[in-house]
Amino acid sequence: MNILGVSCFYHDSAACLIKDGKVIAAASEERFNRQKNSSVFPIQAINFCLQAAGLTAYDIDYLGFYEKPFLKFHRVILSHLRAYPFSFKNFLDTIPHWLQERLIMPLIFKNEIGFDKDVIFIKHHLSHASSAFLVSPFEESAILTADGVGEWATMSYGTGKGGEIKILKEMQYPDSLGLLYTAVTTYLGFEALEGEGKVMGLAGYGKPRFLDNFKELTKVYPDGSFRIDQRFFGFNEGSRMYSKRFIKLFGKERQEGEEIEERHCDIAASIQRFTEDILIDISKNLYRALKIDKLCLAGGLFLNCVANSRIAEETPFRDIFIQPAAGDSGGALGIAMYIYNTILGNARNYVMTDAYLGPEFSNNQIRKILMHRGASFKELTDDSLVTYIAGKIFQDKVVGWFQGKMEFGPRALGNRSILANPCNPDMKDILNSKVKNRESFRPYAPAVLEEKVADYFEAAQFSTFMLLAAKVREDKKAIIPAVTHIDGTSRVQIVNKMANPKFWNLIKAFEDISGIPLIINTSFNLRGEPVACSPADALDDFLQSKMDIIVLGNFVLEKQVALI
């Protein structure tokens, strides 16, 4: 049985194909059209999924969409009317998209890929819940979802048992913790839907001295739920999400490119702490209500690994599962699994243990691309490759690492990665200024051998998907300064030998040379662009940055000899 799930038309469009309940392929459209956070119909991602499974659209038994467009349109119309006349320009910009594509989804699928059967729609937050629970290792768990907004819901909680999911309670727009966080992101001069991770990193440099200000513009109830004073915001009223009242409370907003002041760091620390505290209160209340010690988290807010870690550390839940595409792209996974397990009643037979679900390229394909580009390269066996590259990383070379299937979700997990030496105290600045071309405060994450993680980090739980932060052990901070954030934490990815043997062997080779069982792992992309999907994408990034070496499959190119 072949089921295709699709998410699109807001941000992070994606497609996911499952066959007999198991995920065959999944990818975001941005990786193919090279437009960051692309919202367009994911035709290239769909085509990839079909090709990966050896199928055509005629072989698809069921197709699902990750939300209910008419219900969302109801919210869009009402919220614009309530904000009139300030919302008039946004209304004129938005409505044509709804009339031309979003309200005619079955016709869009028929015209774009030739699918002419019924399309299944479920609510946005139910897709999020399904994307976590139905691929988790849990037979039963509590479920918490949170993001900007779906149709009306901004947060929900419920339960999952077997193949059934029950949503027990929702918070609704405009009371949205996700939109609040995004509004502060834009106030601090970063881009919405892209800069939230920057705010999380910046928070480590500040103190939460504006925490009372955030409490002033919200009313928080004993169970952790809240109401936001809309006088401070204008989510549909123009080009910015916050009002003059917000500026009066927090001071002049920062423009993109302006110097980051201590005040900006403190505001970032305050919204981060405010968000964490609310999520912890809600999680504790959820445990008290359900008495289930396992928790699945989904929605874009749970890409915040610091908040996730506090939930793991400070609530009674013993095990937490967050799948790697926790944001809207994961909705494509959620609707596909919901159709198979819940609507059709099939038993669950898939657990997401890795995120390697995207395109891959054979050595023969890579060789042809390199020869066409006139590149000078050498080909190494697997064993000699990991030994050679580990040595180069130890010598402080920055390495682009392109292997196997591309990851699903925003994190690079060892197949589309830039790698570097965690022991060099200058490496963070080198990567930020010479390779990634991004802000100097941005931290870097370590990929560490699963067997050795407890020797270097302390946490209630570690993540294969780089979605939990951990404290760096006090005696190790001076040893791995490049992955130790200013607050003493690190966003750790544990690497399992079975899930990614080549990456595990590379880190082990680095340990054999250095005595350190981890390396810096950051995504293979430059500032403002998506993660590399193809060898050509990776080569372009290599040439446009000051990376020293690129590894494509078993081929090694070095800057001083690569003629491309």
Task: Report on the architecture of this protein.
- This protein has 564 residues and is of the alpha/beta class.
- It has 3 domains: 135 residues, 2-Layer Sandwich (Nucleotidyltransferase, domain 5), CATH 3.30.420; 144 residues, Nucleotidyltransferase, domain 5; 196 residues, Alpha-Beta Complex (DHBP synthase), CATH 3.90.870.
- Helix content is 37%, strand content 19%.
- It contains 19 helices and 23 strands.
- An 8-stranded mixed β-sheet has the order 13-23-22-14-15-21-16-20, sandwiched between helices. A 5-stranded mixed β-sheet has the order 3-2-1-4-5. Strands 8-7-6-11-12 form a 5-stranded mixed β-sheet, with helices on both faces.
- The longest helix is centred in the middle third of the chain and has 29 residues.
- The radius of gyration is 23 Å and the shape is globular.
Strand order of the largest sheet: 13-23-22-14-15-21-16-20
The rounded distance between the terminal residues' Cα atoms is 45 Å
Output the structural class.
alpha/beta
**Assigned CATH class of the largest domain:** Alpha Beta
> Which CATH-level-2 architecture of the largest domain?
Alpha-Beta Complex
SSE layout:
Blueprint: E1 2-7, E2 14-19, E3 22-28, H1 30-33, H2 43-53, E4 62-65, H3 69-83, H4 88-102, H5 105-113, E5 119-121, H6 124-133, E6 140-146, E7 153-161, E8 164-172, H7 177-187, H8 196-203, H9 211-216, E9 218-220, E10 226-228, H10 244-250, H11 262-290, E11 294-298, H12 305-314, E12 319-322, H13 330-343, H14 363-372, E13 378-379, H15 382-394, E14 399-402, E15 416-420, H16 427-435, E16 445-449, H17 453-456, E17 457-458, E18 469-472, E19 489-491, E20 493-495, H18 501-514, E21 518-523, H19 535-544, E22 549-552, E23 555-558
Parallel strand pairs: 1-4, 4-5, 6-11, 11-12, 14-22, 16-20
Antiparallel strand pairs: 1-2, 2-3, 6-7, 7-8, 9-10, 13-23, 14-15, 15-21, 16-21, 17-18, 18-19, 22-23
Helix pairs in contact: 3-4, 6-13, 7-11, 8-11, 11-12, 15-18
